[in-house]
Amino acid sequence: MSIVELCNIVKTKLITEAVRNTFGDMCENIFDFSFESISGKNPKTNHKELNRYFYTVYLLKLVEEGAQGTKILNTLRESQILLEILEDKIQALALLYDDILQNEILVCEKLEDLLEWVEISNSLKVYSETQLALSVAYNKFITLSHEEISNLSTSPLGKGYIDLLINIKKGLNYQIPLQQLAILTIRNSFNFIEQMNFFDYCGINIEKNPEQDWKIIEIIEDIMGTNNQDPNQQEIEYDFLNENLLQIKTSLESVLPYAEYKSKNGVFEGKNIDSYDTEIDFIIPFEDIIIEKRKTYSNPTNSFQVSIYKGRLKNDRNGVEINKTVGIKMYQEKKPRTDFTKISDEIIIYKRLSDLRKRPENCFTEYYGTCKNIENGKTTYYMIMEYQKKNLLKFLSENIELNDQVLFTMFKQLIRSFEQMHSLNIYHLDIKPANILIDQNFNMSIIDFDMAIMIKGNKTNASDKSERRAGTKGYADPKIQALIDGKNDIQPYSNAAADVFSLGMTFYHILVKNDFDGKLNTIERNDELLNKVKNLKQTWARDLLLDMLNKDENLRLSFKDLMGKFKCDSTKNYSDKNY
After folding, report:
1. pLDDT tens-digit map of 347-398
2. 450 and 335, same structural domain?
3. Buried b (16+ CB within 10 A) or exposed e, 98-135
4. N or C: which end of the chain has fewer CB within 10 A?
5. In a domain, 572, yes or no
6. CA–CA gap between residue 541 and residue 547 (Å, rounded)
7. Domain check: are 228 and 243 in the same one?
8. Total domains, the chain
């Protein structure tokens, strides 16, 4: 779609009386307004005509003025609502987004930022198979990675190798052909581990960090497990790397046994989903599932193709016809006998929480069952659950005003739900608005447990600690955010306290809606965040969030303690008002 075509759409189809009343002179000649001034006119409303006009003009100015950097990420994501509003222009819009993303990628200077643009581009593949931005991203990724490799060769840091490997892993997940880069980085990582642990530096004491080295090895194993490599070109190289990997793991065992490293996390472990068949009941026959063609989400990983669909379930578990609309999460293995440990954990969590589901007491998702289908020697698992059209993130973008009674009820239900989860030693570790579904009656359902962990046995202070990367930028615990930003070495954090903080950031987003600043969840800006909380108009919510958002995890209340401050269904300690 050209600028001329887009201008014509704006002038002939999008200017209504409501648009003129809201945007005034901008309707006469949008070229008289700068990109910055237009950005400031975001109506932040659920009004279809206003959103259609604003986001179309926004895209037009982006095409005209060129790359703007990561400051436009949130609005660019929000603008994808046009793909629903202008259904007859989907192909053209997808190509327009592709042009914008190419411009942003070309000037990008950080791998982390580059992957943000790739994420958007990858999400558009369901609308158009022609995504040139991904090709541009490949060249940019190679350039930035080689710069990072050069820096690491002169200033080797374990955290640097971890970040680079994680970014390569994400790039591979987005189908960027980075196999040769992965091989080079893996070799350099092996050299780094050997130099830090096994070389004699003539009496110089080199500080070892075997926990960090094991983390590097885990990421390498994940990358090498991918099924993306071209066997004709890279099979020999991967075989060699596997031999080298085995030697390094054997040597590192003498420094820190792997079992001791893993025991610090105390994560529920397993080998394959077959070992969980006593707890997982594959009660849904494949022929009872009807899957719509268009995916609502798709993310290829090293081992699986993960997709989410809207679908229909013909019969319930008793064989009674229900013909019910459902959500279907599909894990399709890329090679036979893949390790399904994390998937089995996710299924078990959904099932356990569904058994506790009680409206309006909690926000657990109704889980209908699991289907297991084997075709051409490969297994696909389908998780069948309740369907909601909208998640909380999309709901917030509509800028709907909620009174204190509704807000209080929502907050209390979510806190109670996570209190129940923690009592079962289940930790979500990726709480955010996108992972909470909501209907027209404000009933909520917590979803997406692929980052969640279950702690074995009785929880102790030691086993509540994690060092793994989890969560989402903008909502994650400050310690985790520091890892995401590459500012600190890995520091243990409390799983429980991390969930409290992320739910606190979610509450803050609910309260400020489109004014949400996704960079406040850092250690450095925690005082600024707390000051903004103190200025919220909802007095009761101020006190609640102050108990949840302290950068010091020891000063945050647990979900149990937070619930203790709610006196009953109609009153609360967090306010002198009654509802």
Report:
1. 999 999 998 998 778 999 999 999 988 876 678 899 999 999 899 999 998 8
2. no
3. bebbbbbbeebeebbbbbbbbebbbbbbbbeeebebbe
4. C
5. no
6. 10
7. yes
8. 4
